[in-house]
Amino acid sequence: MSDYEDVSYEVEGSTAVITIERPERYNAFRGRTVEELIRAFRTAWADRSVQAVVLTGAGEKAFCTGGDVKQRAETGDYGPTESGMFEIGNLHKLIRDIPKPVIAAVNGVAVGGGHVLHVLCDLSIASENARFGQAGPKVGSFDAGFGSAFLARVVGEKRAREMWYLCRLYDAGTAERWGLVNAVVPAAELLTEAKAWAAEIGQKSPTAIRFLKQSFNADTDHQAGLSNLAMSALDLFTASPEGLEGATAFAEKRTPDFASHVVGH
Ligand SMILES: CC(C)(COP(=O)(O)OP(=O)(O)OC[C@H]1O[C@@H](n2cnc3c(N)ncnc32)[C@H](O)[C@@H]1OP(=O)(O)O)[C@@H](O)C(=O)NCCC(=O)NCCSC(=O)c1cc(O)c2ccccc2c1O
User: Fold this and answer.
1) Fold classified for 7-187+205-218
2) Which Enzyme Commission number(s) are on file for it (predicted)?
3) Which of 37, 61, 120, 189 has the maximal Cβ count within 10 Å?
């Protein structure tokens, strides 16, 4: 894979800016998107001039809405990839392992697997129009790895469970109050603000920052094992009648009938 199609990658000074470029799908990711994000993060990791990464979405509506549910309804998976694998678990680990802070610039709705991406970033800055939530149980999916366990570390058990069980969307003010984001700024200032934070980090000792990030991570690194289990479970569940009913109902713009397709009790 030589050219980016779903993602753009730019370096400005000591900051790499990675943008998900699928605004027509509210920046939902398919297999290719995930593969390109991995390539972009690895490029940022290898570039010694890069000291922080900003992750954002194209357009004004969405940061990322998680897995491309229309693709899933169409083909039963997240589409072809160069590796033959859907590597979302590896992307999660990479965002944590890259030894440089990753700042999510949340420019709109961050939901489902897109919400998980911003939660995994070191810092999150939101625009005033941003909205946050989990959606899996509405569309036949779940992230029982970092998406639940690490979220609970960030916002607390009660709020994490509320987000997953009710699948509501929360506004930027609530996200700030819950400690889900570090700051909220007007939409027009979001990228400038995120880049300013990244540049400020760029003036600090890269080695000190690297050790600090690894130290913060060490406390929750055991969740990577949980994430492996969760991704294996998800592979089975998304292909089940209950999982497929969620994706099909979304694509057909109807209420899912989970009760008729339930696979386990
Ligand atoms: C995000 C919304 C709440 C926004 O609602 P709003 O009313 O503002 O806008 P629309 O609903 O009209 O959306 C505009 C336009 O974008 C399309 N779109 C939005 N999200 C997606 C998506 N995720 N996939 C494909 N397309 C999307 C939408 O259809 C509209 O297009 P039109 O052509 O009709 O104009 C609302 O859109 C919403 O609830 N979206 C779905 C959110 C969702 O369910 N996300 C997926 C959750 S599951 C997941 O993320 C996931 C993650 C993983 O890591 C996995 C790993 C392994 C297996 C499975 C995984 C997985 O399923």
Assistant:
1) 2-enoyl-CoA Hydratase; Chain A, domain 1 (3.90.226)
2) 4.1.3.36
3) 37
Q: Phi and psi of 83, rounded to 5°?
A: -80, -15
pTM (predicted TM-score): 0.97
Contact 252, 74 (CB under 8 A): no
pLDDT tens string 206-250: 999 999 999 999 999 999 999 999 999 999 999 999 999 999 999
Note the pLDDT tens digit of each residue in 95-146. Answer: 999 999 999 999 999 999 999 999 999 999 999 999 999 999 999 999 999 9
Ligand 1 centroid to 106 CA: how many Å?
16
What b/e readout covers 74-107, taking b as 16+ CB neighbours within 10 angstroms? eeebbbebeeeebbbbbbbbbbbebebbbbbbbb
Q: For residue 53, say whether it is annotated as part of any ligand binding site.
A: no
Separation of 68 CA from ligand 1 center, angstroms?
6
**What are 61-90's pLDDT values in tens digits?**
999 999 999 999 899 899 999 999 999 999
Burial of 149 (C-beta count, 10 Å sphere; 0-12/13-18/19+): middle
* Cα three-residue angle 202-205-208, rounded to 5 degrees: 120
List all residues whose CB is within 6 A of at least one atom of ligand 1: 25-26, 28, 65-70, 88, 109, 111-113, 135-136, 139, 141, 143, 234, 238
Ligand 1 atom 48 nearest Cα? 136
133 annotated ligand-binding residue: no
Centre of ligand 1 from the C-alpha of residue 230, in Å: 21
The answer to whether 128 and 184 are in contact (CB under 8 A) is yes
> What's the 29 CA to ligand 1 centre distance in angstroms?
9
